[in-house]
Structure to design on (286 residues):
């Protein structure tokens, strides 16, 4: 049927919104969600308990695809 | 400990300016509900690559959530973040993923699929990444099938970080080949891991989100 892709698209959109993925609309300001690993690499360790292990350091590099 | 409250999911993820296509190509910006998927993958990638720092922990603790399925998972994460301390999450991360000889979990696709690291699933993933023209930095030794890496890759496919946003068919191919066969099990393991407290909530969010992804991709069939 010709309109099937469109219908599926609408179905998917409605489903995603229903489960909570619609809440991005109309937003203005924000904290990061996406690219933090790269940004993190620049940060100094903070707080007494923070340990930047070799593994983590290594991963920071990895994260840059 | 309690941090600033009242930040909504929307604000947390509204995030970065929308990706603009490179190469002068005109690409359609994905709708919000699709971009939001990229933000969730991005958050999971961030939390699985390293323990959260204070700003991130505070942002998560301050989330206000709606009554949706993901809203509930985020509410649990917010609660866990509110109860967590910086040394606490660092220790959790260490116990879960690093350990003295190894962590409680081995967050690699190859391990989940074959019982060994660096096996065929990794080779297949590398082949796919090559086709997608996504490459790791030259000096990187960590394999690409680390859970944080695949989450970051699919986030990039969705939001166009690697050039232009990729169509659902490409996202779906990547998801079904390199994530769906194992990543749900990983998140379930994380949710139930002995060392996990804050990370149990991360595991739960990841597990629920992957189920949603699976169902949503199936609709596009």
């Amino acid at each position: 049927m010709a309109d099937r892709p469109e219908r599926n698209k609408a179905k998917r959109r409605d489903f995603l919104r229903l489960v909570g993925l619609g809440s991005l609309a109309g937003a203005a300001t924000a904290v990061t969600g996406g690219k933090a690993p790269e940004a993190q690499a620049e940060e100094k360790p903070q707080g007494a308990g923070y340990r930047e292990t070799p593994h983590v350091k290594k991963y920071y590099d990895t994260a840059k695809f | 400990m309690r941090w600033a409250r009242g930040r909504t999911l929307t604000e947390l993820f509204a995030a970065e300016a929308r990706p603009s296509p490179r190469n002068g190509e005109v690409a359609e910006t994905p709708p919000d509900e699709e971009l939001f998927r990229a933000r969730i993958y991005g958050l999971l990638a961030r939390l699985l690559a390293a323990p959260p720092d204070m700003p991130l922990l505070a942002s998560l603790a301050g989330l206000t959530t709606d009554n949706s399925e993901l809203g509930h998972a985020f509410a649990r994460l917010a609660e866990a973040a509110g109860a967590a301390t910086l040394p606490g999450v660092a220790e959790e991360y260490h116990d879960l993923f690093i350990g003295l000889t190894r962590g409680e979990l081995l967050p690699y696709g190859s391990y989940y699929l074959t019982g060994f690291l660096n096996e065929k699933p990794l080779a297949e993933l590398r082949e796919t990444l090559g086709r997608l023209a996504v490459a790791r930095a030259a000096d990187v030794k960590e394999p690409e099938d680390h859970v944080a890496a695949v989450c970051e890759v699919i986030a990039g496919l969705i939001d166009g970080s690697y050039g232009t946003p990729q169509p659902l068919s490409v996202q779906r191919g990547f998801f079904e080949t390199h994530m769906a066969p194992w990543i749900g099990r990983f998140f379930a393991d994380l949710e139930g891991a002995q060392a996990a407290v804050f990370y149990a909530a991360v595991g739960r969010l990841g597990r629920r989100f992957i189920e949603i992804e699976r169902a949503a991709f199936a609709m596009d069939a």
About this structure: Confidence is low (pLDDT under 50) at residues 1-21 of chain B. Chain B is about 60% helix and 0% strand.
